[in-house]
Amino acid sequence: MNTDIWIYIETENGKALNVGYELINAARPIAAEKNSKIVALVVGKNILKAAQDAIGYGADSALILDADEYASYSTDAYTEAITYLINKYNPETMMFGATTNGRDMAPRIACRVSTGLTADCTDIGIDEASGCVRWTRPTFGGNLMADIICPERRPQMGTVRPGVFRKAEFDSSRKGNIVDETANIHIDPEHIRTKLLEHVDVVAEAVNLEDADVIVAGGRGIGSVDNIHLLEELAEVSGGTVACSRPVAEAGWMNHNRQVGQSGKTVSPSVYFAIGISGAVQHTAGMQGSGTIIAINSDPEAPIFDIADYGIVGDLNAIVPALTKKLKERKM
Question: What is the pTM assigned to this prediction?
Answer without folding.
Answer: 0.73
